[in-house]
Structures are given as C-alpha cells and as structure tokens.
Amino acid sequence: MRRDIAELFELDPTLTHLNHGAFGAVPRSVREAQDRARARIERAPMRAFRDDLPVEISEARQSAACFLGLPSESTALVRNVTEAVGVVAQGLGIGPGDDVVVSTHGYLTAGWTLEVRGARLRTAAFDVDAGPDDVVAAFAAAVTDRTRLVVIDQITSPTALVLPVAAVAAAVAPVPVLVDAAHVPGSLPGLDVESLGVAFWSGNLHKWAYAPRAAAALWATPEHRESLRPLVTSWSHGLAYPERFDLQGTVDHSAWLAVPEGIAAWEALGGWEQVERNAELLVHGAEVVRSALGTPDPLGGIPSAPCLRLVALPAGVATTTESADALWQQLYGAGFVVPPVAFGGRGYLRLAAAPYNDEDDYRRLAEALPAVLAR
Ligand SMILES: Cc1ncc(COP(=O)(O)O)c(C=O)c1O
C-alpha cells in the first residue's frame, strides 16, 4: 500500500485491500466529520431535528448534486442504490402483471426489490466478452409489451464493465430506464447523466466519493419527480421533490451530513487525476496477476471500469458461488481482500485500484496466488 495515502484511511494495515468498490473505505477526516455531526445532534436533539437538520441536509444534498454536475432540483439523497430502486418502483406503481428487465450482470438486490412487489423479472443475458451491440440487442430482446422499467448497471458489479447505457435507453424507448450507477460517482470521468436519455439514475457516494455509508444520490427527469416519495414517510412529507426526501424520521442522518467532507477528501486525494492514476495502476496490476496465472484476458468489446477490472482464474477455479466463496475465505486468510466472482461458468478475480494501492499490492497477490490455488 502507498503508506502516505493509506495513513489517511483507517484500513487494517496487515491486509492487502484490493476491493475498494465493494463497500468503499472512509478516510479518517470524513469519519471525524461524521462523528462531529453526531455529537452536534446529541448536544441538542430537539433543536437538531427541528431546526438544524433540514438546513444541513439540504446543503449536503446540493453539494452532492453539484459534484455530479446535476441541477439541485433534480437530485435527492437516499441511503443507497437499492433504496432508490424501491423508490422508483413505488413511484411507478410497479406490481403484479408488470415485467421489469434486469441483466445477468445486474446487482441482485435491485431485481429482488422489484420481484417482491410482484413484478416478473426478464433478464438480458450477455457474456463478459460481448460487444456493445450484443448488450443493446440483449436488453431490447428482453422487453415485452408489459415492460414497465428497464434497470441497467452503468458499471456492472460482478464484471466491472461500463455498459452502453445511452444506446440501451434508445433501443428500449419509450420504456423508462433506471440506471444503477452504484460505482459511478467519483470513479467514471465524463459523466453526463442528463444526456443518457434515461428516466432515473442513482449512484452511491460511499464507494468512490468517500462519503460515509450510507449515502447515495437519486436523479429523475422532471416528469417523474412528482411521483417519487421516500420509503419512510416523515416530516418532509408535504414538501416537493427533492426536499421531501430530506428528513427520514429519527434515522441517523449523519452520513449525509458528511457528504461534503467526502467530496472534499476526493478532491484532496487528487480528483480526476487520482482516478486516472488508479486506472493506469489497475491495467498494469491486473496484467501482473494475469500473467502469473497464465490465463487469457477475459475482456471483449465493452470497456472495463477505470477502478475495477476482471482477471480470469484458471479453468475450473471458482466457477460456482460456493467455490468462489471458499476461495474468498482462502485469500482473506492469506491476507488479501479481493473477491473471486463466478460468472457464466467461469471464475474471475475482481481487482480494484484505490488511491492507497500501489504496484506492490498486485505483485504480492500474483506471488501468493499459485500457493493459495494449490490448496
Ligand atoms: C451495481 C451495484 N448496485 C448496487 C450495489 C450496492 O447496493 P447498495 O448500495 O444498495 O447496498 C452495488 C454494490 O457493490 C453494485 O455494485
């Protein structure tokens, strides 16, 4: 790990952390800002909930919108992307008799959130090495005359691909599209949500924008905003979107209050230059691991995310969820935090690159893998 940067975080220094994408990691300065926010509330809870929180949450929400390049009236704070999926499903009144499209690369909680409402999931299937046209065709083929919503990951969770969201949205129109952009804020340069041609977009701020968990942004086009309501009905009830998402009863709002500090940490760590440095490190690091394993590059025509990348494991390794799980435990036992992924009958490692990583992290993993795999 890069010691100077790792010192800004509170990660266990005895482990090699190559999985920033999963749950993020909160810099100390951000955790302290959240602690201060909690302490302020505890000094005078009545005043905090009545008078201070509405103002402070509104400021945090506006800083998130500004960071994402979005007008403040378009963007609400929610806790995480899965909550945003629930909000959208509720707003559209999705239920029995409706079809919803997800993909084989989609994050499972999004599909489950729609399924528990009684919707039927139809799945767009494509391989890791597919091209953009295959992705568009797979989504278009999954749409029926009962489809009420298409959910697409902008960066896929298991496979770290950057999907062609705008082309898919154009192909499935007029069905509304919800973009699961959990990994996008702070990690995907050139983001222009409003040009994607989608109805809804939601991204976590607690992965690559260094906010505390749980903090996410939900954006919607003007025609959908009126129908969107928070899942917890509380004292913001009578307000317009997005203010009506601000107060969620007596939950802990401190993660939202520390969003501006998370964004400040992202900037202090180098902003987009830092992302570019991580992307180069990851291409190189993945190649080091891949050549140690002697496996082919799994990628085809879809670009990999700047911050996350797959390396294929040898044939027969981690090809099921159970064997991927067992390998995860073995790697963890050897001091490596890196997720094996079983996808389409193959096993992969999903590597991340965060500011605290350096070349040595990937080299040590490459050196340790033969012994771990031999067990
Ligand atoms: C594509 C995607 N969606 C959603 C999530 C997480 O969901 P949530 O933030 O709702 O816990 C992840 C987490 O890694 C993800 O990769």
UniProtKB/TrEMBL annotation:
Q: Which Pfam families does this UniProt record tie to the protein?
A: Aminotran_5
Write out the entry's keywords from A to Z. Aminotransferase, Pyridoxal phosphate, Transferase
Domain Aminotransferase class V positions: 55-233
Q: Name one GO molecular function term.
A: transaminase activity
Which domain of life, per UniProt? Bacteria
**Keyword Transferase attributed:** yes
Q: Does the keyword Signal apply?
A: no
UniProt protein name: Aminotransferase class V-fold PLP-dependent enzyme
Organism encoding this protein: Terrabacter terrae
